[in-house]
Write a structure and sequence with these properties.
about 10% helix, about 400 residues, mainly beta, 5-stranded mixed sheet, Thrombin, subunit H
């Protein structure tokens, strides 16, 4: 690791257990709603089906630089496209390969100061670049479960002071013949010491189907309610949301916990909510889509339906939170229940107390990647599933006005 990279990631030592949360920080949200409401106004759209420099494939990550440049990872092309604040194409960073500054499987991206970090689970490393794309070096990356050899880790974020937040790559575990029931989301410091932030029940997070040839195929559960973990884009904090779907129609709770890189707790807040039942039509649709996907593996519809029913997790109620974003200022954005509507509500929590500040209405198809003060950036797809990077202004007004 170069001296420049040592300065970027630091040499901090992290606790091997979570700091106990002070009693005053265990709070339960009141039933009172937010004092303000928000809406979005689109100001930017990047993408094209005709111009190669602007054309986008599946977006893995998106971050915004201090001067407004937008960095968009393209896992299929193993590169990062850079656009200026107005959406004009500037450059590509990296290419497919195993050499310095090259990528094989992009799994995460973010900032540490003015340094862009990019994680690659296949090459088992994090690479570092200047804002203009100059390669500065890399550090190795592996996760070693107790008593086992190392496996690649899919990086969710880098925290200030050399800590990596991520999870073992499921496909690699399966290829090694390991029987998986749970998957930890861990924080790992530079020496390899790990802290478990949350544990995902793999049956609720991914569904596994074994083909007639004995090959296990894994894909995401449509109604996944396993914990969510998200780091701030600048590495200043990490947020954990425990959001198991309710099992009865009475009031239920989910929990939001925000931690600093030192693992000190900023807040841990229990939020009361009323569960929303998943309509039978939605459950049928989820099952039918899975049947069609599995049918291509099994070869006949009867076995596909049986395999889908056995593999799918179909809760009675929606998970209370379906996505999360952490702003560069520390506020926490929670995407609430997805109910097959044109729009969805995002609850915005204060970054210090976890108090509900506002509720923002956004397009249901918007995936938010970054929030900065009164703007946000994300990805939307058109009717042909072509992705576009979009930028929105956040317009907030007092409730009742």
């Amino acid at each position: 690791m170069t001296s420049r990279i040592r300065r970027v990631v630091g040499e901090a030592t992290f606790l091997t257990i979570l700091t106990v949360v002070p009693a005053a920080m265990h709070v339960t949200a009141s039933a009172q709603g937010p004092s303000s409401v928000g809406r979005l106004r689109r100001e930017l759209r990047i993408g094209s089906v005709n111009e190669d420099s602007l054309a986008l494939s599946r977006v893995g990550s998106l971050v915004v630089g201090r001067e407004g440049s937008i960095y968009v990872s393209q896992p299929q092309e193993a590169t990062i496209k850079v656009f200026d604040s107005q959406g004009g194409y500037r450059a590509d960073i990296g290419r497919d390969g195993g050499g310095p500054g090259e990528f094989r499987n992009l799994t995460g991206m973010g900032w540490l100061g003015d340094t862009l970090w990019v994680a690659d689970s296949r090459l088992r490393r994090v690479s570092f670049f200047s804002p203009d794309g100059t390669y500065w070096g890399s550090m190795p990356l592996d996760y070693v479960p107790a008593g086992r050899s190392g496996v690649p880790i899919a990086v969710d974020g880098l925290l200030q002071g050399a800590a990596v937040v991520g999870q073992p790559v499921v496909e690699t575990q399966l290829a090694l013949g390991r029987q998986l029931a749970e998957m930890p989301i861990v924080l790992m410091n530079g020496s390899g010491t790990t802290i478990t932030l949350a544990v995902r029940d793999l049956r609720r997070f991914r569904y596994l189907v074994q083909t007639e040839r004995g090959v296990t195929v894994s894909t995401y559960q449509p109604l996944d309610d396993s914990p969510l973990v998200q780091t701030a884009p600048n590495g200043a904090s990490v947020v954990v949301v425990e959001r198991s779907a309710a099992t009865h129609p009475d009031d239920s709770q989910f929990r939001v916990t925000k931690l600093l890189p030192t693992m000190d707790t900023v807040f841990s807040r229990q939020v009361d909510y009323v569960p929303v039942r998943v309509p039978a039509s939605v459950l049928d649709s989820v099952l039918n889509r899975a049947v069609e996907s599995i049918r291509r593996l099994y070869g006949n519809l009867r076995d596909a339906r049986s395999g889908a029913r056995a593999a799918l997790y179909l809760p009675k109620f929606y998970p209370p939170v379906t996505s999360i974003a952490v702003s560069s200022e520390g506020t926490v954005w929670l995407r609430r229940e997805a109910m097959a509507a044109d729009s969805v509500h995002w609850d915005v929590l204060d970054g210090r107390s976890g108090r509900l500040l506002t509720t923002v209405t956004a397009p249901a198809g918007l995936e938010i990647f970054e929030v900065q003060r009164d703007r946000l950036w994300g990805v939307e797809t058109d009717q042909f599933d072509v992705p576009y990077v979009v930028g929105y202004a956040i317009l907030v007004s007092e409730r009742g006005r």
